[in-house]
Structures are given as structure tokens and as C-alpha cells.
Write a structure and sequence with these properties.
The structure is a single chain. This protein has 11 helices and 6 strands. The chain is α/β, with parallel strands linked by helices. Helix 6 links the parallel strand 2 and strand 3.
């Protein structure tokens, strides 16, 4: 019996369009071009970092983030806020809690992401990031931490994400119920792959209460 639902962050809860658009401006390339490079990385199973390398060969992304913070200390830069949430997030999370599930957010994110998510006052029980755990998906240790956090055996947890490789397949390997949300470049591409057969695929998070019920 499912007792907890755990969510990835980027392109599961947060629409990253504005983030990548600001990065395009920072890198001095057209927004459509940079978004296309991100999509190309998703389609060819390349790390996201390759999009930055293609846009600006030799870039040190972490150093660029530091310079960006110095240039625009009051700007949103590579971060996100409540305006980036997908419209279905709040009603879906609230409906799941009303149905009796523990609702948790846990994804590969830097430390400031937890503060940003907590500032949104989402209807969730816990928020954690890979940075504070010191381990990233798809490492099995990450999903063991998820189970520890919820206090629920893996068989009682549904993990919702937009990627097969980072989210739903390793969650399934950990004994959790995998759910793929079909949005963002990875979500659309991965939902069409043979590996997605037999995995629950949703187009909106508001489908979850009925699907998991």
C-alpha cells in the first residue's frame, strides 16, 4: 500500500524555461538556440553541462555562477522562485495530502533550492536536496535516503520525476513505484522510449491521486 509520494524538482515541479532563458542571455546566445541545445542534450543522453560547453567552449559553469552573483547580487540568476512552479503543483500536492499520503520533495539540487522551495509554503511534509545529503540521483544511496526520510518502506513510496535515467528507473530498482511526468525536454523524449513501457506516465500531476488511489 502506497503511503508516500516523493517528487523530483526540475521539470517536475519547476518549469526551467526562465532559468535557461536567463542563462542564454548571460552566455550571449539567442534563447531559442540555448533551449535547443538543452533539448539536444536530452535527446542524445548527454549531460546538461554539454549545452553550456557548446554555447561557450571552455566555460567553467561554477566560476560563471560566482561572477554572475557578483554582477547581479539581487537577481534571480540561475535560481527559481514561486513564479516558476507549474500550475498543477499546489493543487496536486494538496490533494495528495488530503488523501492521506506523506508528500516529500527530494531532487538533485544545490543548497539554495531548499530555501527557495520552503519560501513557497508548499503543502509538503519535507524538502531535501542532493547537496545536503552529499549524494545525487541515480545513486541507490539517494533513494535509500528518501526511504529513511519518509519512514516508509520503498514498496510504499511512489517517486515522480521527468527522467527515466535519473528518476523513475533507479526508483523502480530501489523498490519504489515509478511515475514519469511527460513535460520538459527529458519528459517528452523519455516517455516515448521503450524503457517507459509498463511505467505509469502522466501529463499532469493532478492525475496522481486517482492513479495512485
Amino acid at each position: 500500500m502506497l503511503r508516500a509520494v516523493v517528487f523530483d524538482v526540475g521539470e517536475t515541479l519547476v518549469d526551467e524555461t526562465r532559468i535557461f532563458s536567463r542563462w542564454a542571455d548571460r552566455l550571449g546566445v539567442p534563447r531559442g538556440t540555448f533551449l535547443g541545445l538543452v533539448g539536444a542534450c536530452a535527446a542524445t543522453d548527454r549531460p546538461l553541462e554539454h549545452a553550456f560547453e557548446l554555447a561557450r567552449p571552455g566555460i567553467d559553469v561554477h566560476a560563471e555562477i560566482t561572477r554572475w552573483a557578483q554582477d547581479e547580487p539581487g537577481g534571480l540568476r540561475e535560481n527559481f522562485d514561486a513564479d516558476d512552479l507549474y500550475d498543477d503543483v499546489r493543487p496536486a500536492l494538496a490533494a495528495l495530502r488530503d488523501a492521506g499520503y506523506a508528500v516529500v520533495v527530494a531532487g538533485n539540487q544545490p543548497p539554495q533550492a531548499r530555501r527557495a522551495l520552503e519560501a513557497m509554503d508548499l503543502p509538503v511534509d519535507s524538502i531535501r536536496t542532493s547537496d545536503e545529503w552529499g549524494v545525487e540521483k541515480p545513486d541507490p544511496v539517494f533513494f535509500a535516503r528518501v526511504a529513511e526520510l519518509t519512514g516508509v518502506p520503498p514498496s510504499g513510496i511512489a517517486y515522480v520525476g521527468d527522467r527515466l535515467d535519473n528518476d523513475v528507473l533507479p526508483a523502480a530498482d530501489a523498490g519504489m513505484r515509478p511515475v514519469l511526468v511527460r513535460r520538459g525536454p527529458w519528459g517528452y523524449l523519455h516517455a516515448a522510449r521503450p524503457e517507459a513501457r509498463g511505467i505509469d506516465v502522466v501529463d499532469t500531476l493532478t492525475e496522481l491521486p486517482a492513479l495512485l488511489g
